[in-house]
Amino acid sequence: MQKGAVLWFTGHSKSGKTALTRLLSDELQQRGYRVARLDSDTLPEAIIKPQADTWEERQRLKYENLSFLSRLLYEYETVVLIASVGRFRQLRERLREQIPDYLEIYLNCPLDIRLQRDVQGKYQTHSDYFHFYEEPERPDILLETGQMSPEECVRLILQHLKDRGYIH
Question: Which residues contact 127 (CB under 8 A, 6 or more apart)?
């Protein structure tokens, strides 16, 4: 029987969260694992952009939505891949406290590379808050996505999951 886990892929916008969770999801599914991707780029707006008066409150509500969904899927022994900036460290750490099989995967990528990847111009359009991000203090996995290929990153994650007993 499969063991559930929640992996939060965190990092600045355009650091590679969506690409890595897609690749990892495909690989795990090919190996027969039940996987769910919760991606801020593709989830319904009611989940990722809840109505609130302030940006901070919207971020908190977004976290609560992602947290609820990930806990529910985890209870059904699903490997949950969250692809979301998760701008506030405290909120990401709160989920760690709630789920024993939680891994925080920090995608570190230099600004110049992120700007090259930003074909939609989000960094310029949303400059008032777009750069705000509290880096993890002790991520379970640190990936230098400006230097490593997506395939290299996925291999490292898979090895980590195997070493921790989440997959075989």
Answer: none
- Does the structural domain 5-163 have CATH classification 3.40.50.300? yes
Residue with tokens 């701008």: 87
Chain-centre distance for alpha carbon 156: 16
Name the token pair of 155: 């291999």
Listed residue (62, 77, 90) closest to 6, CA to CA: 77
* pTM (predicted TM-score): 0.90
How do the domains of the chain map onto residue ranges? Answer: 5-163
CA-to-CA dists, residue 13 to 6, 29, 32, 108, angstroms: 20, 26, 30, 10
pLDDT in tens, 141-164: 999 999 999 999 999 999 999 999
H helices present in the chain, as ranges = 17-30, 45-48, 55-75, 89-98, 111-117, 122-125, 150-163
Alpha-carbon distance of 86 to 108, in angstroms, equals 14
